[in-house]
Amino acid sequence: MKERFTKGMARNIYYGGSLFFFLAFIGLTVDTVNKLPQTDNRENLTEVVAFGKTVWENNNCVGCHTLLGEGAYFAPELGNVYTRFGESTEAIKAFIKSRPVEGIKGRRSMPQFNLTEEELEGIAQFLKYANGIKTHNWPPNIQG
Amino acid sequence: MNLKYESQSVAKLYFMAAIGLFVGQILFGVILGLQYVWGDFLFPAIPFNIARMVHTNLLIVWLLFGFMGASYYLVPEESQRELHSVKLAKILFWIFLVAGATIVASYLLIPYARLAEITGNGILPTMGREFLEQPTISKIGIVIVVLGFLYNIGLTILSGRKTVINMVLLTGLVGLAVFFLFAFYVPDNLVLDKYFWWFVVHLWVEGVWELILASLLAFVLIKVTGVDREVIEKWLYIIIAMALISGIIGTGHHFFYIGTPGYWLWLGSIFSALEPIPFFMLTLFAFNVVNKRRRDHPNKAATLWALGTAVMAFLGAGVWGFLHTLAPVNYYTHGTQITAAHGHMAFYGAYVMVVLTIISYAMPLMRGRKANSMKAQVVEMWSFWLMTVAMVFITLFLTGAGILQVYLQRLTDTPLPFMVVQEKLAVFYWMRELAGVVFLIGLIVYLVSFFIKGEEEV
């Protein structure tokens, strides 16, 4: 039986299989990118939101939080924080602003990032935009 | 006892750097574990996000050092010629080490936003995405080092004997370089950003890195078992065939809940459910060839690492991956401690262990002996068991935490807020930290094993 399945056959499965599925993946990627306008909330992707995304990145927020379930698992999910905070960008800004510099004794606390008003507005608008992405109803409930 | 090719010894530098950075990674792991239960530990000097970045980035950098060292060792022997340029390998080593150390030091010394500012992240923004936090300029440095490395390795392979092992390794390394380029694509659109971010992360660890893993393991198994190359190459082909057939479309298991079309729920579930198959075959392969061994290689520790890699990769990547890969399950587990559990065991089982396997095999040879003394090997095997068992427990405690988290935060009729749930998980986190300390002890034992003398096996 061993002779019947030769190294040549194994090699052909490797080349054929990976090529086929790689091409299929490219095809699916093209299709996905074409379909994204239906789900990715791009109509609300304003300049402020784009700026907010850079604030999100430049402060490495994903190092503690998840966003749409991706990131670190140390702090709450933020993909739906806009809903959780009563659909208020002001509440989000107030929370970020009020973090104590020295933290909270014995507990996890978000650092004080000393963001400017413009940056605060950006990050809040970015989180509002993320909240509007259609994710097949994930997360399961408001707690994220 | 001399090396077959003198240039192989350049691998030693790479392996030493890899192990050094590994120690740093674990120290920060222990800090992070403590921060989970002692929230303001080292705060605000080293907040969690910074420590995590150090932990994950050190892992990536030391694994890359390991892969490069492994290639420099393996490729001359497989190609039956000296390395194209030892000098280039040494220059790139120092560039990469200085760059890696600078990245980590800058995370710790400079606030991240300031780092983004002074490295000109505004010009070509690539920072602040998970695992790809390095400043843009450092990323460019990584690309240059990898290109130089590929040039060196590629020329050696292409002008020497081409074996299945070195060709598969080369394919994996080229894939690593190509997919890293997606790290430079950071669109404003969050969904697009996330979609192509996985082209680096998933297509690395569940794609081309598996080629590297399988070829390194195949190389060591040929050496320690003496089993016919034909047999091993057939296994190698079929394993990597299954890895790519399942793993490429399997990327879809990350496209469930990030704003992508619904067909990914099906495609991602089905194909990623097949991802354990290549890992299971890897286990069969390793045990099969060790049982059929034609020689008793004196390096027992290397054989243990090789078998351990296969088993732990299957458990961590295969079993723990499957645990939460089906879309309806992932709906509840996505972004919880279940993911952390899987991530830890998969990275350790597949990539950490394969690098330690080749180090275990090659390091004694580079130090002028076929294998270390039995005394040294026993210590090394102790470190194998300490680290591996500790990792099993880290994974189990995180899984326990994850199940409870899923229940309290997502499944029950009265879901609790994230932070409330986290406090209820404290006992699991304490136990995980304890297992983490055992891992660190195992790592110290591992370091000690390099300094144990005794009767050498020649």
Question: In this structure, how is the largest beta sheet of chain A organized?
Answer: 2 strands, antiparallel
CATH architecture of the largest domain in chain A: Orthogonal Bundle
The residue-averaged pLDDT of chain B reads: 97
In CATH, what is the class of the largest domain in chain A? Mainly Alpha
Largest binding interface between chains:
A-B, 76 and 78 residues
CA radius of gyration of chain A is: 22 Å
Are there runs of chain A of 5+ residues with pLDDT below 50, and where?
none
Number of helical segments of chain B? 16
Q: Say which CATH homologous superfamily of the largest domain in chain A is assigned.
A: Cytochrome c-like domain
Mean pLDDT of chain A: 96
Percent of residues in helices of chain A comes to 40-55%
Element order of chain B: H for helix, E for strand:
HHHHHHHHHHHHHHHH
Radius of gyration of chain B: 22 Å
* CATH third-tier fold name of the largest domain in chain A: Cytochrome Bc1 Complex, Chain D, domain 2
